[in-house]
Each structure stands twice: as structure tokens, then as C-alpha cells.
Write a structure and sequence with these properties.
The complex is a heterotrimer of chains A (about 90), B (about 160) and C (about 625). Chain B is of the alpha+beta class and about 160 residues long. Chain B has helices at about 20-30, 60-65, 90-95, 125, 140-155, 155-159; strands at about 5-10, 40-45, 45-50, 70, 80, 100-105, 110, 135. Chain C has three domains: about 5-205, 4-Layer Sandwich (Aldehyde Ferredoxin Oxidoreductase,  A, domain 1); about 220-420, Orthogonal Bundle (Aldehyde Ferredoxin Oxidoreductase Protein, subunit A, domain 2), CATH 1.10.569; about 445-610, Aldehyde Ferredoxin Oxidoreductase Protein, subunit A, domain 3. Chain C contains 26 helices and 17 strands. Chain C has a six-stranded mixed beta sheet. In chain C, strands 8-7-12-9-10-11 form a six-stranded mixed beta sheet, with helices on both faces. In chain C, strands 13-14-15 form a three-stranded antiparallel beta sheet. In chain C, α20 (about 475-490) crosses α22. The two termini of chain C are about 35 Å apart. Classes of the chains: A alpha+beta (about 90), B alpha+beta (about 160), C alpha+beta (about 625).
Chain lengths: ~90, ~160, ~625
Amino acid sequence: MKKLQIELFGSARRLAQAKEVNIEVGDTATFREVIVALVQKFPAFVGHVITETGDLIEPYFFNVDARRVVRNLDEIPEEGKPLLLLFVDAGG
Amino acid sequence: MKHQYIVCDPDKCAGCSQCELICSVTKAGVFDSARSRIRTVRIEPVVMMSIACRLCEDAPCVIACPRKALTQDPQTGVIRLDSDLCDGCAWCIEACDFGAINLNPQSKKVEICDLCADKDKPQCVLICQKEALSFSTPEQVARQARKEVVSQLLKELLE
Amino acid sequence: MYSFFGKILHIDVTNRKSWVQSVTEEHLRKYVGGVSLATRLVYDNTPKGVEPLGPDNALCFAASAFAGTLVPVGTKHAVAAKSPLTNCIGDCLASSYFSQAFRRAGYDGIVIKGAADKLTYIFIDDDVVTFHNAEHLRGMPTFETEEAIRAELGDEAVRVATIGLAGENLVRIANITNDRGRQAGRTGLGAVMGSKKIKAIAVRGTKPITVADPAALTAKCLALSQLAKGPKTEKYRIMGTPANVLNLNRLGGLPTRNFQSGTFEAAEKVSGEYMLEHHVDKAVSCAGCPIACEHITSVREGDYKGARTSIDYESLFAVGPNCGIDYFPGVIKAIETCDAHGLDTISSGVTVSWAMECYQRGILTKEDFGGLEPTWGNHAAIVRLIEMMAKREGIGDLLAEGTKRAAKKVGNGSEHFAMNVKGLECSGYDLRAFQTYALGAAVGTRGPCHNRSLAYEPDAQGKVDRLKAGPERGAIAKECEEFAALFDMTMLCKFIRGCFKEPWSEITELYTLTTGFNMTGDDMKAAAERCWNLKKAFNIREGWTRADDWLPERCLTDPLPEGAAKGVFVKPADLNMMIDAYYVARGWTAEGLIPTMKLIELGLEDIAKDVGV
């Protein structure tokens, strides 16, 4: 098992009522399993941050260490690197 | 007991006035707020609400019309106009406390919400994305308000 | 003709005359509307080398085919002129009831030239144009002016676009305001209007808008409106664009203390989340919008009790983290002050922050500020400086010129941190942390504009490595610009862009159902390319050279000191490389000039004669 720390922004933060969350997933778990774990913890994410079919709703994305966006949910997250669940907007 | 009419919740209304445009295109085939039977009021920056005919009992407009051009349907409460009799005197407009009657600028006959008589449901309610508009009776409005306030006051019990 | 009227209203405010020019369907198809049509009007109605604050500059308004129809988020208009801030094309978008009103008066565009002898307001009452004394409105805040004119004309249905004190005083960062909270904000168009001594333009339009296929359009609009209240627009509905504060802060790109850093230690206290919890009264809409992103916020107690305004991310960053402000009521008061006087919040905040850094570094002293001590976070000082800018009082007279001119005057190294490109102040994304956008900001025709460029999206979404430059960014920046132009010509708010699967064809279809112009997605793409080349051609005509496509010195030498983008800056060689690639992608010469063949290909033969190479 590996422990992952995920910082939450926007609706994710609002619905979880938390700035970050720690989850535990299998060693070979991909970001898809991370999404499943998040939905288990926060069912309210569905329809706002996560689709019914387990994808992220645009414009949300996972970002590793604030430097790199996860382009493929089949990627395997590494323990020890902070993850962000956020989006960026057109400033008004 | 009053009939179903178009109700607007000012807490939800964001003042977009799309209700005006769908009404005018439905009734007159053009986008022209002057041809809409529902009208948005915006008192900047936050007071917003749309108003359409409220199907008053003993409707003042019906009573006021000197030519008896307005009648009220006993079943639905909808105000009906006999356009042959209407001469655009606007006395009914002055009688209506809600400003729910308007004068067609071309024909000079009055226009009043008829709950989209020729459609299966009021179009303004359909277009309102804030769910500010609803097609309700006063009893339904009061019931909804009671439910919301009770849910809010006792929300810990609901969790 | 459906939707459009085929008419441009010309107003000569010197001689108090007006006349109507007919435009063909062919012309409207070519320019589509909005920013493209407005730019064409400026090009055609100004002589080369026109003085921006002189009578020969043309202040042009252009319509959207969608304004006043059921098309959601389509009730917008464009305003353009030669900018007194940049000497390039200054093109703006604004929205809501004014956009509908001048259309319903029967015009697709308005061109205003000349200069009145005393302060005037113009009243466009369908076909009748009259000129009214506005001396009694001098100095009046923007919203009060609207209300005063409505009362004077005796009709609540009159819509008004107005300048505040800043526009009257020819402040180079002054804006034009309509419907209380909507602005044609950037590039100093308020000063252009002020130079013509026009306090306001009032409109009453009673003509109905017809569309080519009302039934099909209504059905499409219902479907689109329903999508527009779904999860794709949730970020706008919940707290509006201020949601960006914490996101950008975490990514290390939130401009802080005049772009000295990309991370603000007090970001939580000036975040959208904080705003939502403590200050939001209600979210309201522009005319025709089902999203309602405009968050009206107020101060309920304390120093600035009663201050109230709508808050967007850009205004927030500019007077918030960018000025080191960690006190939300101060942010609200500063924005309200800008709005009342008709000042662009972005340029105001970034000009004040420049002044604050001058104070930090001892380049300007307390005496220069007339006794004020503009330390980082001093919100009272910021509000005062904004007032002084609007009034051109004390140091406000210097700041009213914008960062480029002010830094040139003050010198002493202050040019290093005058955060502008071509004279227009930078908006709320640190360019070092988003390097595709750095390119877009350098080459953008009106200056560094996230809205015209959209190139921060591939950066933020990780389609490229945002912290590095690369030659592929040239083509990417071009594609982003043209996608933006799709919205800027048809005049759809960009906040709906997530609701389309195939935006080019879907939006073209909406346009066709509205206007009856049978256009394809490819026609629209060609129009978008034409739009960008037209804007560039105007700039070239007015003396633009490649040297103007550059970045503030800070971005090229100062690495970000902390945060997720720590250590990053834009290397000049990289910037040149990306600009080269962009010119190639655009089919321009190495100097960024436009080949004659390219202009002819785009149907701009007459312009080819002026600037083609």
C-alpha cells in the first residue's frame, strides 16, 4: 500500500470541507484508483469534480508537486510527491 | 383557492432576462422585450425579479376595462383579451398593481401572460437556469418556503 | 438581413452631426462582428499616425449578432480605438444591456469622431441622435451618471456607457463603464472618450431582433443554456473567477508585490473562498447569461463598511496580492474606487504596485507621495493613490500616465520593474511561470492579455512544460489566439467554452441560425486569422516594430524566488526563439511584418497596399 497526500482546490475543497486529504491505495494503483478512493471518501465529488464513470470533470486535473500535470490517468502516482487536484481559469 | 401562475424567487433570480426573450420569440417570433409578457426588474446591484400576471381574484384589470375587453377564465384564472374590443386606452395597465400588463407598440392592444396557452408548458420556466421561475400555486410557494426554513433551522438533525 | 441591420452610425461630435453608412452582408460575413468589425472601423476611420487623444481618433463600437437574442452569454459588444496607452489597437469587450440597446437602435456599429467644445452626452434614440450638455455631470461617478441620465431623459429603459472622473481627466488607464459593473476596461479607451469631451453615450433601442431560424435557434439555445449550468461552469457560478487565487498561488504564478514573487503568504485571506464566506451578497448575470458569474461583494463592518462592488480575479490580484494586501475589505474598497471613477483595475493595481516598489527601493520618497507611505499591504494608501490617479492630483498625475511613461520619467532603475508590454500593464499570471503565455503576452496586439491570447491554458493544463520555453509554442500561441478570436468576433463569453465539443462548427452553426449567413467552421477559422492580421496590420501602420514584442525586464532576469516555479525566468534567447517560431506559424516575415500575398489571401487587399511587404 502507498500513502498519498492530495491538496484540494475549488469545488473539491468546498465539498470535502478540507484543504487536503490523505488516502491509501495499492502499490501499483494508478490515478484511476486514486479517483475511486476519493469518491469513496467524498461521494459528493461525483457530478462536480468527478464523473459518474470515474473521470475528472474538466477543467480539473491532477498535478504532481505543482510542476507537472498528469495527462494520463493510467499513470502510477509515487508516494512522497504531493499531489494537487485543481484547475486554472480565464481571469475575469 | 388560486390557480397556478408564474412565480419568481428574487433570491435566485440573477437578472438575465432570458425569460423576456423566450416569451417574445414564442409569442411574436422576434426577440423584443417589449413583446414579452414577463418582465425583469433589476435594481442594481442585487435586487432582481421577473413579474408576469398573477391571476388575481376579482382581477382589477377586468373590472377596470371600460369596453369589457378583458375576461377571466373561471377554471385557470387566465386573463383573456378580446382584441376586437381593445382600443389601447391602457386603463387596465394603470389598474394592475404589478405592472403585469403591457401594450403592444405596433397593434396598440394589450398583452398579458396566458401561461403559454399554445405550448405544453410555460416557456419562461423552461429557460430559467437559476430555477427562479416556477409554475406554482400560492399554496405550493408557501409549502416550499416552510420546507426550506425548517430544513435550514434543523439541518443538524437532517445530517 | 437577419439579426444585423447593415448600418453603421457615424457621429461627428465637433459639429453635432450624424449619418448612417450602409454595410453589406459580405462585409459583415468577412468580419463576423465584435472585435474584428470594431478594428476594421478604426482602421478605416483614422488616418495613419493619428493622435490617440486627438479629434481624429475614432472611438468605435461593434455589435454581436447574438446580443438581444436567446443565445446564452452572447450579449456583448466591442469597443476599439487607437490606444493612448500603447499607440496600438486598443480593443475591448463589454457586455449586458448596453450591448443589446445600441443593436436594437438599429446599428451594427457606431463610429465617433471629433471633439465637443464642452462636456457632452450623446443620446441615440433609435434613428434620432441628439447632443446634450453634460457639464452638470462632470466628476460624477459612473453609476450615478447612468442613473442621472435616465432620470433626465425620463426613461428607465435607456442604457448608458459612461466615463468617470478618470476619463474626463484623460487618465491613460481610464475605462468606459456600462450597466453599473461592466467595463470596456483596458488600453485607456475612457481617455479617448474623455478627449472627445463625451461624458456618456445613452441609447434607447426599440427595434425587434429577427433571426434566420427562430425555432431551431431557440431549441439550440435551450440545450446550450442547460449545459451552461452544468459542472463545466461550476467554477464560475460558485465563487466566480476569484477561485484562481489559490490555484495560481499553489502553482507559483500569482503576481505578488509587483511581480517580485509568484507566491503570496496571505493568499488564503484574499482568496475566492474567503470572499465567498465573508463578503458575497449574491451572484448576478449580464443580460442573456445563465451562468451568473458576477459576484457582488460588500464590506459589512469596520473601516470600509458599505463598500460594495463585483469582484473578478483580475481586479482582485491587481489590488490584492500584487500590492501585498491581505485585508479583503481593503480589496473591495480599492476596486469600488476604481469602478466609481472609471479606472481599469488591472492597470491601476499594477501601476500602484510599481509606485510601491519605487517606495520600497527608495526611488520615490514619502515627499514624492505627498506624505503617504505606500508600504506593501497599506490598503488605505492604495485607495488614496487610486483617488489621486483619477484626479491627477500630486503623484497621481504621474501614475495616471501608466507604468511605461511613469517609469521613463522617473528612471533610476524603475523601468526594470514597470510591468507592461507595449505600455499595457500585465494581467494576473506571472509570465515566468507560464512560458507559452509569456510568448502570447509578448506578441499580443493589444499588449499582455490572457483573454486575447489564452496561451496560459496549454501551460496550466500541462499540454506543455509551463516552466520551459520551446519552438512548438509558436504554433500553439497562434492556435490559442484564433480560438480566442472565435469568441471575440461572434461575441460569446469565453466562460462557456467548456460546453462545446466542437466549438468551431457549433458556434458557426449558432451564428448561421442567427444571421442566415451560411458559414462553415473553416470560414470562421479564416475570419479569425483575418482578425489577427487586421489588428497586426493596424499596429504596423502605426509604427509597430519587432522590438515592441518583448517582455518586462523583470521577467527576463529575475528568477522567481519561491514557490512551485522557484528559480524560473524567461531567457531572452528563448523568447526570441519562440517569437521567431510564432512569426513563422503566422506566415509573417522574420521582422514580424505581413507579406502582401498573405493579406491578399485573407481578403485584405486594400490593407496590403498600406503595410504589405
